[in-house]
Specification:
Layout lengths: L1 H13 L5 H8 L3 H13 L3 E5 L3 E6 L6 H9 L6 E5 L5 H8 L7 E5 L20 E8 L3 E2 L3 H20 L4 E3 L3 E4 L2 E13 L2 E12 L4 H4 L7 H5 L9 H21 L6 H7 L7 E4 L4 E9 L5 E5 L4 E4 L3 E3 L1
Parallel strand pairs: 3-4
Antiparallel strand pairs: 1-2, 4-5, 5-10, 6-10, 7-8, 8-9, 9-10, 11-12, 11-15, 12-13, 13-14
Helix pairs in contact: 1-3, 1-4, 2-3, 4-9, 6-9
């Protein structure tokens, strides 16, 4: 049905009013099939007007994530081969891991909700139904394992840029995997790999973005959503189609740069979007926690931080908090 939905949506996007019979003839299907496709599009959040003797008219695109929209986005992608959409899953990461051997090219998994969403360090990531973007993007590089540190930097820039271009909001990066707006977290991503002999075969990048306001967000002073930052009166004002297009474009661009260019090629841009430099932060590594101010980042992606005693630390993997 998703393919038929796309075809009907494509026809509606080109016309003012279009009769069910004309669509049925052009697509080689019955008028009943057209009616069912229109009904399905409405259920996915599209506003389709119907007028006797005139036909159907697309009034507004969907503000919700849905299979038709996602499949259409990936169809035009130069990187991702397909998208798997589920109304509900335990975790998009788990589903993505289970499909890696079956799907040879890069692909995307998206869910309407997650019942066991998780972030870095196995923390819970609240994923209520139709309130956020819950997505795992699978990449298939052939790179050394230590390159994964730089991957996070390129991807964080892609997400921040997509948010800024789509919603005109200033998005800042908190090293290594968080995106903030106005000092509050709006997005986090989790990077996991499948490797052999020190070489990475697959990168599974789980992205969790707060799109709409929830009770959980209202309880946390450190969290926010796109809806909250835009101060929308109606969630339909959020242009989901434009955002998804932009996100895929930026993921493709930054991934291509990651594969073909050094981190130094984006270092200054990344630093300009960072929100951590010059601020004292709690840095928690595997065996210690200390206070220090991040002051720079190396071309290898390591964070340099100076503690209260003037000692400089090279941070490879850690949790940092304001």
């Amino acid at each position: 049905m998703s393919k038929l939905n796309q075809e009907v949506l494509k026809l509606l996007s080109k016309q003012d009013f279009l009769s069910g019979q004309k669509m049925a003839t052009e697509l080689g299907i019955s008028r009943t099939a057209v009616w069912k496709a229109v009904k399905s599009l409405r259920e996915e959040g599209y506003t389709v007007e119907s007028v006797t003797n005139k036909g159907y008219k697309l009034v507004a695109a969907s503000s919700e994530l849905n299979e038709t929209l996602l499949t259409s986005m990936v169809k035009d992608s130069s990187l991702f081969s397909e998208v798997i959409y589920k109304d509900s899953v335990d975790s998009t990461q788990k589903l993505a891991f289970g499909k890696i051997t079956d799907i040879k090219e890069p692909f995307i998994v998206v869910a309407g909700e997650q019942t066991e969403g998780r972030g870095r360090f196995n923390r819970e990531w609240a994923s209520p139904e139709k309130r956020g973007l819950y997505m795992s993007a699978v990449f298939k590089p052939d790179i050394y394992l230590n390159e994964i540190i730089k991957f996070n930097l390129f991807i964080s820039l892609a997400i921040a840029n997509a948010i800024e271009k789509s919603f005109n909001l200033d998005a800042g990066i908190k090293w290594p995997n968080d995106i903030y707006i106005n000092g509050r977290k709006v997005c986090g991503f989790l990077t996991e790999v499948i490797s052999e002999n020190n070489m990475i075969q697959s990168i599974i990048c789980g992205i969790g973005l707060n799109l709409y306001h929830t009770e959980d967000i209202s309880k946390l002073e450190t969290a926010t959503s796109i809806e909250d930052e835009l101060k929308l009166d109606d969630k339909k004002d959020l242009d989901m189609e434009s955002f998804l297009k932009q996100l895929i474009i930026d993921l493709e661009k930054q991934y291509d740069q990651f594969i073909n260019m050094p981190f130094s090629s984006i270092r200054e841009e990344w630093i300009s979007k960072s929100i951590i430099f010059g601020k004292e932060m709690r840095i928690s590594e595997m065996n210690r926690t200390f206070m220090a101010k991040p002051v720079d980042i190396t071309d290898e992606g390591f964070l340099l931080a100076v503690d209260r005693y003037g000692e400089t630390h090279k941070i490879i993997s850690a949790d940092i908090e304001f």
